Amino acid sequence: MIYLEDSMRIRRGTMRVCYHHPGNPRLIIKVPFQNKKEGKLANTKEMKGYHDLMRNQVDLNCISHCYGFVSTNKGLGLVCDCILDYDGSVSKSIYDIVLYQELCDVAFVKKIIKDFCDYLLFREIFLFDLNLKNILLRVGSDGSYEPKAIDLKGRFENYEFIPYASYIKYFARKKMRRRIKQLLDRIEEYHTRRDELRIIDSK
After folding, report:
1. Residue 64 is part of which domain span?
2. What does pTM read for this prediction?
C-alpha cells in the first residue's frame, strides 16, 4: 500500500488526480477522483492504450510511459512517468503556458505542437484526446520545448456510435487530423481568452 497525501498532488482533472510517487520523483500516480467509476475506467483505458502503442511502435519518446497499477490509500492508481524540465521541475502543459506564461509566443508554441502532431500522425500514434492539458512541454537547458503526451486513452476514448476510428487506420487518420486542427485553434483561442479563463480557474 502506498500512502498519498494532499501535499503530493500535482494536478486534478475531471476524472483523476495526479500525485507525485512518494518513492520515486521520476514517477507519478494517477488515482480516480474520489475513487469514482469514471476515473477507474480512465486508468484502464489508458493502460490499454499504452499496451496498444507498445505493440505497434518502436520509438515512443514522445509519451509518458505507464508501468502498471498500485494500491494506494486513495484507491487503485496507475503509475506513469513524471515529465520533468531540465532543472527537475514538473513540466507545464500547453494550457498552463498559454494562459499563465506572461511572455508566451503563441506562434512558436503552435509551430512546435503542429510538428509534434504531424509526427504522431506520420507514426500512426492515434491519440484522439488531444487537448491543451494532455500535452506537456518539457523545457530543455537551452530553452527549447519538447512535447510529451501524458494521456494515452486516445484510441479507445471514442464516443462514436460505430467507433471505426478505433480500429481502421483510414478513419483514425481522418479523426486525428480533425483533432489536430481543433487543438491548434484552441491554442489561439485560449490565449485570446486568457484573462477570462484565469478567472474561471480561480473559482
Report:
1. 6-81
2. 0.90
Cell of 156: 479507445
pLDDT in tens, 159-196: 565 666 666 788 889 989 999 999 999 999 999 999 99
Q: How confident is the model at residue 129 (pLDDT cuts 50, 70, 90)?
A: confident
Which grid cell is 90? 514538473
Looking at 35, 61, 81, the residue that finishes a domain is 81
**Residue 20 cell numbers, joined:** 507525485
Q: How many CA atoms lie within 13 A of 53 on its CB side?
A: 27
| Residues 195 and 175 both lie in one domain | yes
State the angle between helix axes of 169-192 and 106-122 in degrees (0 to 180), rounded to the nearest 10.
170
Residues 75 and 153 in one domain: no
Please provide the DSSP assignment of 108-164 as one string: HHHHHHHHHHHHHHHTT-------TTSEEEEEPTTS-EEEEE----GGG----SS-G
| HSE-up (13 A, CA, CB side) for residue 79 | 15
Q: Is the dihedral of CA 108, 111, 115, 117 positive or negative?
A: positive
Q: Are residues 105 and 14 in the same domain?
A: no
CA 50 – CA 111 distance, rounded (Å): 26
Q: Which residue has the cell 501535499?
A: 7
